[in-house]
Structure formats: structure tokens, C-alpha cells
Write a structure and sequence with these properties.
The chain has twelve helices and six strands. It is α/β, with parallel strands linked by helices and 275 residues long. The protein has two domains: 72 residues, lambda repressor-like DNA-binding domains (434 Repressor (Amino-terminal Domain)); 182 residues, Endonuclease, Chain A, CATH 3.30.870.
Length: 275
């Protein structure tokens, strides 16, 4: 059974959550007689970005919402409360349900044969990957992808377990400098509890699993599988599908190098290929 994805009904800019967030920012800023440049200075961004956020043309980072709540009297946390809904609409309609589930998940197990998954990408790596699709709103996609990673750093972080083919480490995305930074992040994740990174060596026998997929676990309820594909990913909740995915992931973990050896492999490839 496939979990029903949200239909992509178009939302006019006048009623979109992004436009609503921006209109509220403009209303409060003008109420204070504050210029966009002044608000930008407080939020460590430029006049142009403030203008685009107010127009509903750019997705705000959480820090921007926090600054608004701090700078505008009587906001009472309104902008931080509005922020998740504004962020949600930075994702393609078919991805929004997954993003909601990911935010609630207590555990993520992911496999990718060629790329670092978005949840662990650096900003530069993400921009290089997303640019290949030639989106008109590239920076919104990058912002949304980076904001997803907050689940790994919160007080009770979502536990991430990554299994990657060695090809991921050798597949140059962007540039050697981008890869050097990305492998450094993977190395940190490999040594930062509760997260785990395992690499399937190119000499391994992973000929069965070629599709990127992941599993989300929750404090209550059953696991859900996300399969990444073209032109879009999809969610599976059927017990048989979840069981099949669990079996496949167990097999991948068995074929992968142990976590400590995987960290050493990341170090070696980084030094040999991207130093």
C-alpha cells in the first residue's frame, strides 16, 4: 500500500503561508518604523533578503523567525510558530508529507548508492546537487534542505544511521573542495553519537540494492519506508513493504564496513582524493 501523498494544489501568493509570513513581518516592521536594512542587520542578512521574505518570494531560516520574535514587541513567539508552515511550502508538494514525518521521527535509517542524502549534505554539496535540476527557486530549496537537519542537533536528536556505497565518497559533486567539506561532515557524523555511518566497500557484494531508500521510526506507531526515485519519491506503510525494507537494510549493514573502519575509509579517501 502506498501512503497517499499530498496533491499539489496551486496556492496563490496572496494566501500562501510564505506570503502570510512575509506580510506579518512587513506589518510589524512598519508598525515600529523600522527599515528593512535595520531588520536585516538584526537578522544578519541584507535588505534584499528581507524584501524577498516580505514579498513571500524567499523561505526564511528559523533564525530569521527568532529574530522577528525578539525584535517585534508583542509577537509572543508568533513568527517561530508560523515558520514550520512557511518552510513546508518550500518543498515540492509530493515531498511535504515526508518532511512532516521526518520532523517527527525518532530514528532514520538511510541508504544511497551514489549521493550523500539531503539530511547529511553540506550547503555547498546541496546547492551543487539541486542546481542540476535548474530550479527557479534554488536558494529556497537549499534553505529548506539545511533546515531539515535541525532534527540531528535538537535536545533529543533523531538518530541517523547512514549506509553508503563507497562510490558516494568518490563521486565528485561540485568540486574537490566541496567534497572535502562534505566528507568532513560525514566523518563527524560517524563519530558523533547517536549517529552512525557505514560504508559498503567497492569490493563488496551490493548488487541487490541499487535504489536509494530510507526508513523512519517513531516513538509511537509503525515504521514508514521512503523510496527515492524519479521524478518523485513515495512513501510505503504496508507491513510487507516495511519488512522487505528492513531485511534489505540489515543485509546492507552486514556488507558494510564496521563504523570505525568506515570512518577511517572516509579519512583515507578524503586525503587521497580531495586534499
Amino acid at each position: 500500500m502506498t501512503v497517499e501523498n499530498e496533491n499539489g494544489h496551486s496556492v496563490g501568493s496572496a494566501v500562501s503561508p510564505l506570503a502570510h509570513f512575509g506580510a506579518e513581518v512587513r506589518l510589524e516592521r512598519e508598525r515600529l518604523g523600522m527599515s528593512r536594512a535595520e531588520l536585516g542587520k538584526s537578522a544578519h542578512c541584507g535588505y534584499s533578503l528581507v524584501a524577498k521574505i516580505e514579498a513571500g518570494d524567499r523561505v526564511p531560516a528559523l533564525e530569521f523567525a527568532e529574530v522577528c520574535d525578539r525584535v517585534f514587541p508583542y509577537s509572543n513567539g508568533r513568527f517561530v510558530r508560523l515558520w514550520p508552515l512557511a518552510l513546508r511550502y518550500a518543498f515540492p508538494p509530493w515531498f511535504r508529507r515526508y518532511a512532516e514525518l521526518e520532523w517527527m521521527a525518532t530514528g532514520l535509517r538511510m541508504f544511497h548508492p551514489q549521493l550523500v542524502p539531503g539530511i547529511a549534505q553540506t550547503e555547498e554539496y546541496a546547492r551543487a546537487v539541486l542546481r542540476t535540476g535548474r530550479p527557479a527557486n534554488l536558494e529556497d530549496f537549499v534553505t529548506a534542505r539545511m533546515e531539515r537537519q535541525r532534527i540531528l542537533e535538537r535536545n533529543k536528536p533523531t538518530r541517523l544511521w547512514l549506509v553508503l556505497n563507497e562510490a558516494v565518497l568518490r563521486n565528485v559533486v561540485g568540486s574537490e573542495a566541496v567534497m572535502h567539506g562534505q566528507l568532513a561532515v560525514l566523518r563527524d557524523l560517524a563519530q558523533k553519537p547517536p549517529h552512525t555511518v557505514q560504508i559498503v566497500p567497492s569490493t563488496g557484494t551490493n548488487h541487490r540494492v541499487a535504489s536509494p531508500f530510507g526508513m523512519l521510526s517513531f516513538s509511537e506507531g509503525n515504521d514508514v519506508v521512503h523510496v527515492d526515485g524519479f521524478p518523485r519519491g513515495y512513501l510505503l506503510a504496508d507491513a510487507d513493504d516495511v519488512s522487505t525494507a528492513n531485511d534489505a537494510y540489515d543485509l546492507l549493514r552486514a556488507m558494510a564496513a564496521p563504523p570505525d573502519e568506515s570512518a577511517d575509509m572516509i579519512d583515507t579517501i578524503s586525503k587521497d582524493c580531495y586534499s
